[in-house]
């Protein structure tokens, strides 16, 4: 009998046994009922207590006194067979006894209500010897004719309702020896993602199971590496700030640095956001080319530099500029450059700190660059009523620059009419500039008056 015939026979046998059980109250299959939403009654199967305890506690002497039909008819509420129970509790002797029965192929392949086979149960609980016994039993099944896949590989590739294989379960619960055994049995097969989008490698990386990451990479021929939201195993390692795992993944597949999630975030974006300087260095050093530095997020087009500046991660800003000096020329979808991004932080800090340590940014064009609304960094600074000596006292800064509303930074301060502590309108100007701007302010009154009804909004990161 080939594997496909075995599975078909098992399904037919299941239907027959359920019909038998429905006619035989002594089997306790339908002794309980539950009400459905429509008020109808759904049968609830339940296993004979003596059989359940014998399988759970390893009482072969009790099993030997029961008929084989008793084994295949009896099901728990979750449709677990006696082999499911023995496998779940790691009772190797009971498992081997059951596998020696004529109905063993049916019990071996039979999924429960959640799609779990006995192998799923054994792998989930970490029972290595039981896992091996089940696979050995599957090997004795003839090859499936069409695909040529042996019974052992077929059962290992069976998925439950969450699309997890037994190997997924072993990885999830960090059963290293079981993972090693299963991967060595079927190293060429590419295990796909489960219903939540987790592949084996991503699952191991996200949970911090470095030994499993090494095992999967070292054993599987071409393991899938995707995860939730389109992330990769490298994203997961970076987010965990796991430098050793990051190094291993970069050694295995350097091109992972360029893979982005469904929102366009690369591992470098994540490291820049979280402030993981050492991880940023790893990603920059191992990336096959410099393109990773210039990648922009899907909707906003913000680069890792924009994010690092906005999050106040000055060391990362320096490292990004050292790696790709011209990345400072990039702007986001609203025309904001690195200095705009630094000012638009939720927690204000002096943007001059970024420039003071990075001479590559000391260029007039960057300091006075306008965003899509025509606002220079100084306009943004004025809109927040914040004083920064680097911009306020720097001769490179064009303090008369007009935005698209024909307002200077001084106009914005005048409109705000806010004074708080040391922060006031005069702070943005040097003493020797006050008389000049007083005259300019008089000239601008006509424009300011014409625009007094406008409301202004500024984009925050």
UniProtKB/TrEMBL annotation:
Superkingdom, natural source: Eukaryota
Listed Gene3D superfamilies: Ankyrin repeat-containing domain
UniProt repeat feature ANK, residue ranges: 114-146, 263-295, 300-326
SUPFAM superfamilies (alphabetical): Ankyrin repeat
Alphabetized UniProt keyword annotations: ANK repeat, Repeat
Keyword Transmembrane helix recorded: no
Keyword Transferase: no
Residue ranges the record marks as coiled coil: none
PANTHER family: PGG DOMAIN-CONTAINING PROTEIN (PTHR24186:SF53), PROTEIN PHOSPHATASE 1 REGULATORY SUBUNIT (PTHR24186)
UniProt name for this protein: Uncharacterized protein
